[in-house]
Design goal:
Helices cover 74% and strands 0% of the residues. By secondary structure, the chain is an all-alpha fold. Helix 3 packs antiparallel against helix 4. Residues 23-105 form the Carboxymuconolactone decarboxylase-like domain.
Length: 109
């Protein structure tokens, strides 16, 4: 799994502007993400699904899109990505889970 943070050109406008204006901050942020990813024994696909679940739980549409896009690029089965949304129903509630499912399907369909 490439757990690198997107380059400034690939980022949503606000994050991209931050990366361009404060490249040192962006570099440190990217380094933290890489260090966290490499700190434990979880396999790459599971890491991506966990990160998607965290994005779903925090109701961050941008992060959900990012992790779905990356998951698809990493050849994760779209049904596995959708399963994350289904698993969120009893934890975050039906309406929030349905929002997350729609964000997943924005890219997984």
């Amino acid at each position: 799994m490439t757990d690198q943070v997107d380059s400034p050109e690939e980022l949503p406008s606000t994050a991209g502007k931050l990366a361009e204006q404060y490249p040192d901050v962006w570099e440190q942020y990217a380094g933290l993400g890489k260090a966290c990813s490499e700190a434990g024994p979880i396999d790459d696909e599971t890491k991506r699904l966990v990160k998607l679940a965290l994005a779903v739980g925090s109701q961050s549409e941008g992060a959900v899109h990012s992790h779905v896009r990356r998951g698809l690029e990493e050849d994760i089965d779209p049904e596995a990505l959708r399963h994350v949304g289904l698993l969120s129903i009893p934890t975050i509630g039906f309406p929030k889970a349905m929002a997350a499912m729609s964000w997943i399907d924005d890219l997984a369909e």
